[in-house]
Amino acid sequence: MAKPLLNFVVLILISLIICSSSATNYIVGDNSGWDISTDLDTWLLGKKFKIGDVLVFQYSSLHSVSEVTKENFMGCNTSNVLDSSKNGNTTFTLTKPGDRYFVCGNRLHCLGGMKLHVDVENADGAAAGSPAAAPSPEGGASFSPSSKSKNPSFVPNFALSNIHVRLDSMILVILGLLLFTIPLV
Predict the structure, then answer these.
(1) Could you tell me the sign of the dihedral formed by the alpha carbons of 20, 22, 25, 31, in that order?
(2) Helix 2-20 vs helix 165-181: angle between axes, to the nearest 10 degrees?
């Protein structure tokens, strides 16, 4: 009787290690999506992005998402982008550590705060810095959204705002372990 229990404990520990290294899909802006009314500064709070995580941008036809350099991010330059999409459902996999910069393709929206800077941690959890909120535009001109309403004109219909792969993996592993440890008669 002790051997199946020991096997079960060892397998649980192994599954915890495996699941802790799983990737997470982050829906940018949660229920508000990638929208000018979304408070991206608040959305970033407490999030740690790791290699393998996925940023999911969901947005209306009024918007797009572009990955840009730091310089283009700071000036909301949308004419020279690294990658761009306007299909309404765009994913970016975080494949290496360091800073990543995303802006709305509409420059006025970007100037109004519709831009995102994330710092991707190394596999060991060390970060080059922490996620930073989009800085205010320089030069005296300031564009801001008319509101930070929690009821924007476009709200994607999500059952869950963040899809945590770790939880799904953990449940499957535990169910598998339970079936593995049950003695067959």
Answers:
(1) negative
(2) 160
CA dist 133 and 113 (Å) reads 9
Residue spans of beta strands (DSSP E) within the chain:
25-27, 49-50, 54-58, 65-68, 83-85, 89-93, 98-103, 115-121, 162-163
Mean pLDDT of the 71-97 span: 95
Contact 146, 8 (CB under 8 A): no
Question: Which of the 8 DSSP states describes residue 127?
Answer: -
Q: Is residue 38 within 8 Å of 152, Cβ to Cβ?
A: yes
Categorise residue 29: left if φ over 0, alpha if ψ from -120 to 50, beta otherwise. Answer: left
For the record, the structure tokens of 148 come out as 């930070």
The share of the chain scoring above pLDDT 70, in percent, equals 55
The position carrying tokens 């499957």 is: 172
**How many C-beta atoms surround the C-beta of residue 96 within 10 A?**
8
The C-alpha atoms of residue 170 and residue 15 are separated, in whole angstroms, by 7
67/73 Cα distance (integer angstroms): 9
Q: For the chain, what is the mean pLDDT?
A: 75
List CB contacts of 19: < 8 A, sequence separation 6 or more. 166, 169, 170, 173
Contact 63, 53 (CB under 8 A): no
Per-residue model confidence (pLDDT) at position 127? 54
Contact predicate 40/30, CB 8 Å: no
